[in-house]
Specification:
- The protein is mostly helical and about 425 residues long.
- Helices cover about 75% and strands about 0% of the residues.
Amino acid sequence: MALFASTLFVIAYVLISAEHKLKISKSAIALLFGGLLWVLIAINDPINMPAHLNKVGEEIFGIVVFLLSAMALVEILVHYRFFDLIRTWLLAKKLNNTQQLWLISSLAFISSPIIDNLTTSVVFSQLSRLFFKGKNLIVAVSLVVISANAGGAFSPIGDVTTTMLWLKGKFSSSDVILYGFAPSLTIYLIAAVLITKKISKGSEHAPKFENIKLLFSEKVVIGFTLGSFSLPFIFHSFGLKPYMGLLTGLGFTWILIDLLKIKLPNHQSHFTASIEHLLQRVDISSLKFFIGILLAVAALDHFGILKSLSDSLFGSNPSLQRYIIGNSVMGLLSAVVDNVPLTAAAMNIINTSEPSIWVLAAITLGTGGSLLLVGSAAGIIAMGIVKDLNFSNYLKVATLPATVGYVCGIAVWYLEYLLR
């Protein structure tokens, strides 16, 4: 039965990888095979299945609600023109190409821990189109992808990989920031130094910018929305699940907007939009993909398949060097395999309770995807925004810098570990 389950999972993986060719949603494939694998468990182990499914369901609920709330808050920021303000500020700087690329990539690295790497990739890839053309645009967006992935890796809410491990209790928010910031920064800086050398000197014609003026009430909404992202850490310190913090922040922001609409009914502002309409923009399909993958990986764990993988990759009593090699290999795999199932598998494969080892896993799984354009959601979305960006030109521009940064980031983590 375990062999049959493994075969089904491999088939699902192949189908998911071929999503664009097959024109079949990877979310649909993940849900189908996740359900089928649990049917196998129900047939093979009907007595223990309900208890195991309840436990898995509780974990999935926490992750999905957390991501749903975070996505909703980001949609509010988009609607209230927070990112338009950033764009206007950048346009006003009138920097040359190299300076502009450093500024944009730095902002991407700083923003990603707060608004997640996928949103960061969308925002700053769009911004790059305003300042760069041709080959320069390819160079700029390639660095944006690396910056977004590196910045998100050390934040509990910056990357789905880190979020999954954090919600699973593998490390605290302070652990991942403390142990992960320096490696992530190293990955970004090394890649940035190497990639910025490839951009042509001088400056390109930037479009005229429109000065955006927000009402005080709109600034208040933006402030409270940004503040909501701090609530998971506060709630977690009280022993509550992090998703409770984001849910509370979303509820408070929602009520605030409704109250301001009542108080300022005739004002020409963005309060005229319905929050319900904004929430409909949230990417529900990606959440369904997470659900399907997590169900499938949990089924493999039930059959003991992940235990066998753990022994093969790390050994039954792994040393520090074995952990480093194993995590590094999984990070490289994330360049060709979706990191959501890899992370779900890692949570059961890596047998340690040491937070710093799990932070290394978050770093490698979160940034390994930068080695190839299709290795991360940030890269794929950037490819959709910039049509000239493809697998081959990303390979020429960014793969070597990303690889050097990846290796240096792991080395910095190791030095930190030795010094502790």
